[in-house]
Amino acid sequence: MFNGKPLYEKVLAVTLSRQSSGEFHSDVFVGNLPDNATTESLTKLFEPYGVTHVQLPDFTERRLSKHRKHFAFVTIPSHEAAQKAVAALHGKTVGGKELIVRLWEQQA
Questions:
Q1: Fewest Cβ atoms nearer than 10 Å: which of 9, 77, 102, 105?
Q2: Alpha helices in 1-108 (DSSP H)
Q3: pTM above 0.85, yes or no
Q4: Is 66's pLDDT higher than 50?
């Protein structure tokens, strides 16, 4: 149960706006990652954009489909840098897979 509602095998994504030194950070969703993706490899990929944090969840295997859905969230210190990362990396082939990279917007 979450906020009094049953979840039934749903994956939740919760994001918080973070503020540091008066600036907000932007979270970037990265999907369709190759099987061998690691926190280190994603940090290196996003390094030119000032990545400050990479979260690669370990619960991304869906029980019903038996297909692994690899994704991560990357924190970048400015909205402008995050937009540049999305423009440069969305559709880029990494490990034989075309990345899905987009700004993460909190769902209401």
A1: 9
A2: 39-46, 79-89
A3: no
A4: yes
